[in-house]
Amino acid sequence: MVIISRYLLGIIFLLIACTPVKKDVTTTSSSCLPSQSSCIVTTAHGSFKILFNAEKITTEVPFNITVRYQGEHFIKALSGYLEGKDMYMGKVPVFFDSDITDKNVFIAQSMLGSCSEEKMIWQLWLNVIGDKADASEPFAENFFIEFESTRF
Hints:
globular
């Protein structure tokens, strides 16, 4: 009986000791970057506000991009990619998900690779597919903004 009790206590101790520690995640509100070429892009189909969850984009550190659409159309899909303006670093795909609470808000997480330059200008290309609620005016648009990153 004593051996079983010690055995059970040992198992309980191991289970408690192996439970991952939950860290509090603090979220930063999204805003425009000081280095951003345009915070709001206005098109024939509405306006798109492009926001970041960091004050400064640093390479090799994940960041979020939020796109808020305002207009009379319905956005069916939003995708994009990042590419270097001055130095080609390939195309970094950006996959947006629509916000559960607001269908006009899209959020993606991305990260930039580091290069030999201390600062680099990036272009965020956005591809929008949408139409009116009654599907009478489908459209597709492409546009970009530029922003700066610093090396980690």
